[in-house]
Write a structure and sequence with these properties.
3 domains; nine-stranded mixed sheet; 21 helices; Glycosyltransferase 61 catalytic domain-containing protein; protein O-acetylglucosaminyltransferase activity; transmembrane; glycosyltransferase; Glyco_transf_61_cat
Length: 628
C-alpha cells in the first residue's frame, strides 16, 4: 500500500475559488504609482485650444502685451487688462484677499505720485481709474439716469487697490517679478469667472437681467473673438445677491441662464463670504513672508460687469443703458457676419424648440413681390387660383408655438392644379399676381408655373411673414385706449387679407415662457406698447423685414427696446420704430428719453391705420431692395 506521507494534497474547488477572490482583492487594493495612473487617466481638455491674438491697439489699456484667449493660463503673474470699457472689464490675474481686489502692475507711477487713495484716478500710468472698474454694489437712486449719490457707490481702498509688484511682495511675500512663482503661494480658482456686482434692485427684472446685464456681458466677451466657439464661464459670481433674489416673476431669467450656460456654476453673497474667509487661512507650517496673513485668491481670467462703474460713461448718458457702453470695444471684423449676439440667441431658441436655421418671414435671395404673393395660403387666394386650401389649422398660433412640425403639415402637399376655367375676373386677378409665372412651361422638368406656385405652399411654413401683436389690454397699466386697440386689430386683420401675412394677437402672460420665445422667434414683425414683453426681441431672427414697432404715449420715449434692437441689427438686420399716435419715429431722428404724465397710464392713443401702413411698408421692403 503506497504511503501518502509527504505528497501535496489536491486543492478543493472551494479553496481555489477563495484564492482567486483574494488575488483579485489584492490587485484592486494595491497602491498604484503616479506613472501608472497616467496610463489610465488623461487631463481634461482646455476650454480653448486656439489663441485669439488681440492687437495692441485693441487692448486698451494693458499693462503688458498678452494673448487674449478665452481662458488665461494658470500662471502667477501681474495683472493684465485685456479689454476695458467703463463698467465692463476683462482682466488676467486678478487677486483677492480679505474681500479686497488687487491689481498688481509693473507700470510706472503717475506724476506726481498719489499720496492718498483716489477712486477717480489711477496711481499707475496707462490703467483705468478704480471707479471705472468696480463699485460697492449699492442700489441706484435719483432721477432717470440714476446718478444721485454717486459718491456713496465708488470703490475705496478696502474694495479695490492698485499695487506695484514690490508692494505685493511686501504684503504677501510673493515676488511676481520672478520667472516661476510657486502656485502654492496662492489659492487658484481655475477657469473663467464672471463677476457681476449688481444689487438686487434691477436683477429681478427680465429686461434688465437679459437685455441689459447679459447683453452687455456678451458684447464685452465677444470682443475677444471666437463667436460660437467662445466657451461658457466656469462660474458666475453675484457677491451682492443672495440665491433668492435673481429670479424674475415670469421665470424668464432662469430660463435664459439655464439655456445659455447649463453647466456654469452660480455663486452668491454667502459663497463670497466663504471665499473671503478662505483667503485668511494661514498655514502653521509655512509663513507667507508678508505683512498680511493667509494667501490671496487668484482669478486667472475674470470678466467684471458693474452698473455704477458704467454710468458715468458717455454712451450711458446718451441712452441710459449700461449695455451701450461696451459697444466701444470692437468685435473682430467679419465675426458671425456682424451678428455678435447670434451665439446666445441660437442657444435660447434651441432650448425653446426653434433648433432650425430658417428665417421665418425673411425673404429668400432675390425675392420679388410676386414670389411673396406665391407664399399665400389664405382660402380666398387659394380659391381664386384653383389651388387646394391647406389644413385649416396650418398656421394658427397653436402651431406657431409648437416645438416640432405636426406630421400632417410635413406630409401635406398641394396636388397638380385642375384645368383652368378662365373668366374675365380671373384674368384681371392673374394679371396682378401671376404675370411673371403664367405661360411658362419647363417640359424637361415636367412642371409649369402653377405647379411651382402650388409647391411653394409647402415651404410657406418658414417663409410666410408673421406679425405678432403683444397686447397689454389685460394688464393693469400702460394700455391702449380700448377703441384704439380694437381698431388696430381690425386694421391688421384687413392687412392680413390684403397682402397674405399672418397676424397673431396674443397676451404674453397667457403663453408659457417657452411659447413666448417660439412665437417671437418665428415673428417677422413684433408690435406692442412699451413694456417688458418686448424684451423677447432678443430671440427674433435678423433679416431685411425684421422689425420691432413700439407704441409710446405721445411725447414719451425710452431707449430700452430701441437701443437693444439697433445694437443687434447694426448691419440692417433689425429695425425699430416708435409710434406716437399717428407719428412714426426711428433712428437717427428719435427724441431724448422723456416720461410725461400718461406714460404709464391706460389711455395711450394709437392710430391703427398708421401702424398698418408701416407694417405693409416693412413687409414690402425686401421686394423694393431686391428689385433695385
Amino acid at each position: 500500500m503506497a504511503s501518502n506521507i509527504g505528497s501535496t494534497p489536491t486543492p478543493t474547488l472551494r479553496e481555489m475559488v477563495l484564492v482567486c477572490v483574494l488575488l483579485l482583492l489584492f490587485m484592486f487594493m494595491s497602491p498604484v504609482s503616479d506613472s501608472e495612473l497616467t496610463h489610465y487617466s488623461t487631463s481634461l481638455p482646455p476650454l480653448r485650444t486656439k489663441a485669439i491674438h488681440i492687437p495692441a491697439s485693441e487692448s486698451k489699456p494693458t499693462s503688458s502685451n498678452s494673448e487674449a484667449t478665452a481662458e488665461a493660463p494658470t500662471v502667477v503673474r501681474e495683472t493684465t487688462f485685456i479689454k476695458h470699457a467703463p463698467g465692463w472689464t476683462i482682466l488676467d490675474s486678478l487677486y483677492m484677499h480679505n474681500g479686497t481686489f488687487y491689481v498688481v502692475t509693473s507700470n510706472s507711477p503717475t506724476e506726481p505720485p498719489q499720496t492718498q487713495y483716489d477712486p477717480l484716478k489711477s496711481p499707475f500710468q496707462n490703467l483705468p481709474p478704480p471707479r471705472a472698474i468696480l463699485s460697492k454694489g449699492l442700489d441706484v437712486f435719483g432721477a432717470r439716469g440714476g446718478m444721485g449719490e454717486d459718491w456713496k457707490r465708488v470703490p475705496d481702498e478696502y474694495l479695490l487697490r492698485y499695487v506695484s509688484v514690490e508692494e505685493f511682495r511686501e504684503l504677501f511675500g510673493i515676488d511676481l517679478a520672478a520667472e516661476n512663482v510657486e502656485k502654492e503661494r496662492v489659492h487658484i480658482v481655475p477657469g473663467l469667472t464672471f463677476l457681476l456686482t449688481d444689487s438686487p434692485q434691477f436683477i429681478t427684472h427680465y429686461y434688465h437681467f437679459c437685455a441689459e446685464l447679459w447683453f452687455g456681458i456678451w458684447r464685452t466677451y465677444a470682443s475677444l473673438g471666437g463667436g460660437h466657439n467662445l466657451p461658457p464661464p466656469t462660474r458666475v459670481f453675484f457677491p451682492h445677491l443672495d440665491s433668492a433674489h435673481w429670479r424674475d416673476y415670469a421665470n424668464m431669467n432662469q430660463l435664459f441662464l439655464r439655456s445659455v450656460f447649463p453647466s456654469t456654476q452660480m455663486f452668491f453673497s454667502h459663497d463670497w463670504h466663504d471665499w473671503v474667509s478662505l483667503s485668511l487661512v494661514q498655514s502653521k507650517s509655512k509663513r507667507n513672508g508678508g505683512s498680511k496673513k493667509g494667501k490671496p485668491i487668484l482669478f486667472p481670467r475674470v470678466l467684471i460687469a458693474d452698473r455704477s462703474a458704467a454710468m458715468p460713461a458717455y454712451n450711458y448718458q446718451r441712452f441710459q443703458r449700461t449695455a451701450a457702453v461696451p459697444f466701444g470695444l470692437p468685435v473682430p471684423q467679419g465675426e458671425e457676419h456682424g451678428d455678435w449676439w447670434a451665439p446666445v440667441r441660437d442657444m435660447v431658441r434651441a432650448f425653446a424648440g426653434l433648433d432650425d436655421h430658417s428665417g421665418f418671414g425673411s425673404p429668400s435671395k432675390n425675392e420679388s413681390p410676386s414670389q411673396l404673393q406665391s407664399q399665400r395660403t389664405d382660402p380666398w387666394y387659394s380659391l381664386v387660383h384653383r389651388l387646394p386650401t391647406p389644413p385649416r389649422d396650418r398656421l394658427k398660433v397653436q402651431d406657431l408655438i409648437k416645438p416640432t412640425i405636426d406630421p400632417k403639415f410635413s406630409t401635406w402637399t398641394a396636388p397638380f392644379p385642375l384645368p383652368l376655367d378662365v373668366s374675365e375676373e380671373f384674368e384681371e386677378l392673374a394679371s396682378l399676381f401671376l404675370t411673371p409665372l403664367k405661360h411658362h412651361h419647363d417640359f424637361a422638368q415636367g412642371t409649369d408655373a402653377l405647379t411651382v406656385l402650388a409647391a411653394s405652399l409647402t415651404r410657406q411654413r418658414v417663409t410666410r411673414p408673421v406679425v405678432t401683436y403683444l397686447s397689454r389690454q389685460d394688464w393693469t397699466r400702460r394700455k391702449l385706449r380700448d377703441e384704439d386697440h380694437q381698431r388696430l386689430v381690425a386694421e391688421l386683420r384687413k392687412l392680413e387679407q390684403e397682402i397674405g401675412i399672418e397676424v397673431i394677437v396674443v397676451s404674453a402672460e397667457k403663453l408659457s415662457r417657452w411659447e413666448q420665445i417660439r412665437l417671437v422667434g418665428r415673428s417677422t414683425i413684433l408690435l406692442g406698447v412699451h413694456g417688458n414683453g418686448l424684451t423677447s426681441e432678443l430671440w427674433m431672427n435678423l433679416g431685411i423685414r425684421s422689425t420691432v414697432i413700439e407704441i409710446f404715449y405721445p411725447e414719451g420715449w425710452a431707449h430700452d427696446y430701441e437701443y437693444t434692437a439697433r445694437a443687434m441689427g447694426a448691419g440692417g438686420g433689425l429695425k425699430h420704430f416708435g409710434i406716437w399716435n399717428n407719428q412714426v419715429l426711428t433712428a437717427p431722428n428719435f427724441p431724448p428719453p422723456h416720461y410725461p404724465e400718461g406714460f404709464q397710464g391706460n389711455q395711450i392713443p394709437v392710430d391703427g391705420k398708421t401702424v398698418a401702413d408701416l407694417v405693409k411698408n416693412r413687409i414690402g421692403a425686401a421686394g423694393e431692395i431686391d428689385e433695385g
